[in-house]
Design brief:
The protein has 365 residues and is α/β, with parallel strands linked by helices. It has 14 helices and twelve strands. It has helices at residues 15-24, 49-58, 87-95, 121-152, 156-173, 185-191, 218-227, 239-247, 251-260, 267-278, 303-308, 312-316, 326-332, 335-340, and strands at residues 4-8, 41-45, 62-64, 67-72, 99-105, 202-207, 233-237, 281-287, 291-298, 318-324, 345-347, 358-363. A six-stranded mixed beta sheet has the order 2-4-1-5-6-7, sandwiched between helices. Strands 3-9-8 form a three-stranded mixed beta sheet. Strands 11-10-12 form a three-stranded antiparallel beta sheet. α1 (15-24) packs parallel to α8, α4 runs antiparallel to α5 and α5 (156-173) packs across α6. The relative contact order is 0.14.
Length: 365
């Protein structure tokens, strides 16, 4: 599952610093068979302490974490929806991502010019929201124009589609993001083919300076209040600090550096984990002497679909899944001991895989 988060932000908000920190954190992902990736894509390992736990217990030849892709989406300025800046390329790039990471400047620095002349996180958010909303409005109106005549002729299906499109059109016209417009399931189906930009889940990154890294500041508070009704999360980090941490080779050095700032984990780790959650993803594990590996699936997937992530044959010929819970594995120390103590559950096609399950699939092709 090649899942992508697009990083957006106005010029000079710290977006590139953050992307570069993420990209240098990707060193661990070197043992993945990726083809050459565009320069604006960073493939990043998803931090997961459970892998270390399993590694100690199983002692495999190799450990493979799961990954997520971050895309640096350049060219967002006021007027991008009309082709200003790298407008059209920007919009094509953002269409393809699954979620949006919106970096907002929440630090004061006289040496770094702000496009609007002063620090105003709400203004920044609005500029980007407006550009994306305008593009979405254009998409909705285009589709409405196609269905209008048919709806007027009394076609029931076209009428329904028009009613759904009108809800989105009205909401977008009021300056709402599509994700904040109250709609039913069938309304969402009516716009599914439009891949609306403001319907994508979003995570806001408040980029602060070092002194505000623990408590935040008034800019962060403003932003938090603003995004409450959007069901969106705000992560506070200092991009300049993150790029310093990302350059450190040893894990111990990183932890020491973090503790000096009173931090338990890096902002990047929180961002990667936050993005993973935002995409509604969970992890299950396979564990054997050859490798311990993390696999990414969508929350709510059943066992056969989860098996299909390893190989399509696993899904086609699925017979059953053997499942061990991590606490049991930790308690009994091995798969054999879990089996002896009745801690391996045998599950069928209807089993919904849980985050952290250790799975073994039986299949027949």
């Amino acid at each position: 599952m090649g899942l992508q988060c697009g990083i957006v932000g106005l010029p000079n908000v710290g977006k590139s610093t953050l992307f570069n920190a993420l990209s240098s954190a990707k060193a661990e992902a070197a043992n993945f068979p990726f083809c050459t990736i565009e320069p604006n894509v960073g493939v990043v390992t998803v931090p997961d302490g459970r892998l270390q736990t399993l590694e100690k217990l199983v002692n495999p030849q190799r450990v493979l974490p799961t990954v997520i892709e971050f895309v640096d989406i350049a060219g967002l300025v006021k007027g991008a929806s009309k082709g200003e800046g790298l407008g059209n390329k920007f919009l094509a790039n953002i269409r393809e991502v699954d979620a949006i990471i919106h970096v907002i400047r929440c630090f004061d620095d006289e040496n770094i010019v702000h496009v609007a002349g002063g620090i105003d996180p709400l203004f920044d958010k609005e500029v980007i929201d407006t550009e994306l909303q305008l593009k979405d409005l254009e998409s909705v109106e285009k589709k409405a124009a196609k269905h209008e005549k048919i709806a007027k002729s009394g076609d029931a299906k076209a009428k329904k589609i028009m009613a759904s499109l009108t809800k989105f059109k009205d909401g977008l016209n009021q300056g709402k993001n599509a994700r904040a417009i109250e709609v039913e399931e069938e309304d969402l189906e009516a716009v599914a083919d439009l891949h609306l930009l403001t319907i994508k889940p979003v995570l806001y990154v408040a980029n602060v300076d070092e002194k505000d890294i623990l408590e935040g500041n008034q800019h962060v508070e403003k932003l938090r209040n603003q995004v409450k009704d959007e069901n969106a999360e705000v992560i506070v980090l200092c991009a300049a600090l993150e790029s310093q941490i990302a350059e450190l080779e040893e894990e111990e050095e990183k932890l020491l550096f973090l503790s000096e700032y009173g931090l338990e984990e890096s902002g990047l780790n929180r961002l990667i984990s936050g993005a993973y959650k935002l995409l509604n993803l969970i992890t299950y594990f396979t564990a054997g002497e050859k490798e311990v590996r993390a696999w990414t699936i969508k929350k709510g997937w059943k066992a056969p679909a989860a098996a299909g992530v390893i190989h399509s044959d696993f899904e086609k010929g699925f017979i059953k899944a053997e499942v061990i819970k991590l606490p049991d594995y930790e308690l009994y120390k091995s798969e054999a001991a879990c089996r002896e103590n009745g801690k391996i559950a045998v599950e069928g096609k209807e089993y919904v895989v849980q985050d952290g399950d250790i799975m073994h699939f039986r299949f027949n092709v």
